[in-house]
Every structure is written in C-alpha cells, then in structure tokens.
Write a structure and sequence with these properties.
Layout: H1 6-29, H2 35-46, H3 50-59, H4 65-75, H5 81-99, H6 103-134, H7 140-205
Helix pairs in contact: 1-6, 1-7, 2-3, 2-7, 3-4, 4-5, 4-7, 5-7, 6-7
Length: 206
C-alpha cells in the first residue's frame, strides 16, 4: 500500500528485529556480573596467593566476561603497575568491542529507516497530487486515499527507528555499566596486587 519504499523498509525491519534479537541473546549469554569475581580474587590476593587467584579466574566459564580481564592482569603482576594496567585495558577493550558489535548498525538503521519513510511519503504525495491533477472529478475520497497511502511509509519508518534506537540505548547502557564496574574493580585488583607484591618483597628481605 505504501509503494516502492515499503520494500527497503521491509528489509530494514527484518534487519532491525534480527539484530536486536541477536544482541539480546549475546548479552544475555555473557555473564556481566563482576562483584563475585572481584571478591574472590581480592580475598585470594590478600592471602598472598596470586597463583590461586589466576586459577580461580581460569576456572570460570568463558561467558564470565570479567574473569578474563582480571586474568590478564594477574598473569603479569610481577612486571609492574603499568604493564598490568595495559594488559587489563587491552583485554577489557576487546571484550567490550565484542559486546558492542552491531550497535553502530542499529544506529544506522534508526537513522536510515525514517528518512526512507519520508522519501516514500514525498514520492507518494507527488503521485497522489498528480492523480488529483489528472482527475476530471476530484473528491475527498481520492485525496484522502492518496495521502493515506503516502503516509504509511513514514509510519513504518518511524516504527523501525523507535525500535532500533530504543534497543541501542538499552544495550549501550548495559555495556557502559559493565565497563564502569570493571574499571573500578580492576583498579582495586591492581592496588591489592601491588600491595601484595610489596609485602612479599619485604618478607623476602626480612
């Protein structure tokens, strides 16, 4: 009913729904909780057993995203603060990029769909007014029918945009919250590691 513009809008709608479902399942699969890992690792570090902390992180399943970030720092703890920070930042960046895959496409769909809808509407209005201009008997039904068909594409485009942008904002909030929590927990882990290394050094000197 909306003319040619409904075809690209149909493609956009399928892509949007598929992407939203894929990202939802992906984020749901990955365990983004950090508190339990942080507590376990810090308790082990405080006992002076870095190797046990490494083994704890390795024991977590791959879906436990925070574990691999802490593990990256724990493995190279003796090399110093800057190396630990770089290792954890690199691992966190890789994990966050993986979580954010497809976010840009959602934003693009949220921008392109309503523009396509508006273009379809303009094209439909042009056709409607051309029909009106060529009609011998212009009536309200002819005018309303043309405008009705033209506006359908705008409605579909806006509906797709609302779904895409809403999903993007929710997903981005989840990832941003995880990133902030990991950054805070990572800072605490680094501090405890350095303190543990210093205590260990004093113990050896004594």
């Amino acid at each position: 009913m909306g003319g040619w513009a409904m075809w690209p809008l149909m493609v956009f709608s399928v892509a949007t729904v598929s992407l939203i479902l894929e990202r939802f399942i992906h984020l749901l699969y990955h365990d983004l909780s950090v508190d339990d890992i942080e507590k376990a690792v810090l308790d082990t570090i405080d006992r002076g057993d870095r190797q046990e902390a490494v083994e704890q992180c390795e024991a977590y399943p791959k879906r436990k995203t925070g574990a691999s970030i802490f593990l990256a720092g724990l493995k190279i703890a003796p090399l110093g603060e800057s190396r630990i920070e770089r290792a954890m930042e690199a691992e966190a960046g890789e994990k966050i990029n993986n979580l954010e895959n497809g976010f840009n496409l959602l934003v693009a769909l949220g921008s392109i769909a309503p523009i396509t809808g508006f273009l379809g509407t303009v094209s439909g209005m042009i056709s409607a007014f051309r029909s009106i201009a060529n009609a011998d008997d212009v009536n309200a039904q002819l005018v309303a029918g043309g405008i009705f068909e033209a506006l359908i594409t705008t409605a579909f485009g806006l509906a797709i945009a609302i779904a895409a942008i809403t999903a993007y904002n929710i997903f981005a909030h989840v990832v941003d919250k995880f990133a902030a929590r990991v950054e805070k927990a990572g800072s605490e882990v680094i501090t405890r590691l350095l303190l543990a290394e210093k205590k260990s050094g004093h113990a050896h000197n004594d």
